[in-house]
Amino acid sequence: MQVTELLAEGLKREYRVVLPATELDAKANARLAEMKDKVRLNGFRPGKVPVAHLKRMYGKSVLAEVIDQAVNEANSKIVEDGGFKLAMQPKVELPQDEAAVQEVIDGKADLSYTVGIEVLPKIELGDFKSIAIEKPVLAVADTEVDEAVARIAEANRPFTDKEGAAEKGDRVTISFVGSIDGEKFDGGSAEDVPLVIGSGSFIPGFEDQLTGIKADETRIVKVTFPADYQAAQLAGKDAEFETTAKKIEAPGELTVDDEFAKILGMDSLEALKEQVKSRIVQEHTAASRAKVKRRLLDALDGLHQFDVPPTLAEQEFEGIWGSVTQEMEAQKKSFSDEGTTEEDARADYEKIAKRRVRLGLVLAEIGEKNNIQVSDDEVTRAVVERARQFPGQEQQVWEFYRKNAQALATLRAPIFEEKVVDFLLELAQVKEIPVTREELYAEDADEKPAEKA
């Protein structure tokens, strides 16, 4: 085997490899000799089939297998001799000229091909103990719990039938048929929908026009869909809804006490408050964790600056860019609406893509150097949790992940990342800082959506 380096630029390498015809022929003959004792052909006793006869019958297919194996072995030797870690699978370019290919197959010419590889950079890990970050903390106040319980109570308020016109706060059961320019549209019709007037559940302006409606009365409700409406085909459109009130109900008295808590399946009001408080604590903890993680990743990015494999960066950028442009199309926004240009936006998101790849490589290196692993039990728990998100389809979800290694890797990766983050937070200097709810849940001013992942 003869290897000639053609390119060594950054993390890219390219080689020309020549595999002598004599070596390929020798390997093919050895493979045929192995087949001799296994092949059963009419007219020949077991193990007595001449190799020359096998070569006439199977020579080309065997040589193809030998070439494939030889190319893989040659590429592996290049990687091993160079001490490389591959970022991508090697890109092999075999001869395309039919005459040249035929000469190789006939054993009359050496096989010459090129192989391009992208290698991972050598990462010098920084001093994690030098990282100093602030952790926002927010204690759960009794007023916050009381407000949450009040919202739960309001959502479970009893209603009783009412004679006469509907007022704000009343619940109206309606059926409606929506149309735009006289044409019905998908998702614009529904039957027996309960709606509390003033709840803000429907499109702005819809509920106000139901004030004064009576049971069995039909009205044409005219509204304009918001410009940022989630269904892009409806955003900003004027629509009419032929709306019929089926039933009017007035809100009943609501007493938040132990009896109310028991209706919700709790032993007492105090138990309900404890459950609500626990949920709020989880929400605050998750929000705090997200901010701490972002600050930790910022610090890691500052400690580790190196070139990333171009193809990995391109793939990451394409994923981010696709999401960004799809969201903008759905919202019917342009880059000028965002105060930028497509060129500048691409440059920004290319930086974000490189940052994400760089941080991914750093986290992987930290995990490898410190033997941080994800156990099979942890992955199994993740699959079970995922299956629970699809009631009635748990078995199908389980089978999907059991048979799909790539999908399973998507569950393993975030577990690994969180374990590495935990490891780093143990080493870093983390200072707890009391904050308000507004501060805890506010997005960082310089944070782009693509940087959250």
UniProtKB/TrEMBL annotation:
<keyword id="KW-0963">Cytoplasm</keyword>
<dbReference type="GO" id="GO:0043022">
    <property type="term" value="F:ribosome binding"/>
</dbReference>
<keyword id="KW-0413">Isomerase</keyword>
<dbReference type="InterPro" id="IPR037041">
    <property type="entry name" value="Trigger_fac_C_sf"/>
</dbReference>
<feature type="domain" description="PPIase FKBP-type">
    <location>
        <begin position="169"/>
        <end position="264"/>
    </location>
</feature>
<dbReference type="InterPro" id="IPR036611">
    <property type="entry name" value="Trigger_fac_ribosome-bd_sf"/>
</dbReference>
<comment type="function">
    <text>Involved in protein export. Acts as a chaperone by maintaining the newly synthesized protein in an open conformation. Functions as a peptidyl-prolyl cis-trans isomerase.</text>
</comment>
<dbReference type="GO" id="GO:0015031">
    <property type="term" value="P:protein transport"/>
</dbReference>
<dbReference type="InterPro" id="IPR005215">
    <property type="entry name" value="Trig_fac"/>
</dbReference>
<dbReference type="InterPro" id="IPR027304">
    <property type="entry name" value="Trigger_fact/SurA_dom_sf"/>
</dbReference>
<dbReference type="InterPro" id="IPR008880">
    <property type="entry name" value="Trigger_fac_C"/>
</dbReference>
<dbReference type="Pfam" id="PF00254">
    <property type="entry name" value="FKBP_C"/>
</dbReference>
<dbReference type="InterPro" id="IPR008881">
    <property type="entry name" value="Trigger_fac_ribosome-bd_bac"/>
</dbReference>
<dbReference type="InterPro" id="IPR046357">
    <property type="entry name" value="PPIase_dom_sf"/>
</dbReference>
<dbReference type="GO" id="GO:0044183">
    <property type="term" value="F:protein folding chaperone"/>
</dbReference>
<protein>
    <recommendedName>
        <fullName>Trigger factor</fullName>
        <ecNumber>5.2.1.8</ecNumber>
    </recommendedName>
</protein>
<dbReference type="GO" id="GO:0005737">
    <property type="term" value="C:cytoplasm"/>
</dbReference>
<dbReference type="Pfam" id="PF05697">
    <property type="entry name" value="Trigger_N"/>
</dbReference>
<comment type="similarity">
    <text>Belongs to the FKBP-type PPIase family. Tig subfamily.</text>
</comment>
<dbReference type="InterPro" id="IPR001179">
    <property type="entry name" value="PPIase_FKBP_dom"/>
</dbReference>
<keyword id="KW-0132">Cell division</keyword>
<dbReference type="Pfam" id="PF05698">
    <property type="entry name" value="Trigger_C"/>
</dbReference>
<dbReference type="GO" id="GO:0051301">
    <property type="term" value="P:cell division"/>
</dbReference>
<keyword id="KW-0131">Cell cycle</keyword>
<dbReference type="GO" id="GO:0051083">
    <property type="term" value="P:'de novo' cotranslational protein folding"/>
</dbReference>
<dbReference type="GO" id="GO:0003755">
    <property type="term" value="F:peptidyl-prolyl cis-trans isomerase activity"/>
</dbReference>
<dbReference type="GO" id="GO:0043335">
    <property type="term" value="P:protein unfolding"/>
</dbReference>
<keyword id="KW-0143">Chaperone</keyword>
<keyword id="KW-0697">Rotamase</keyword>
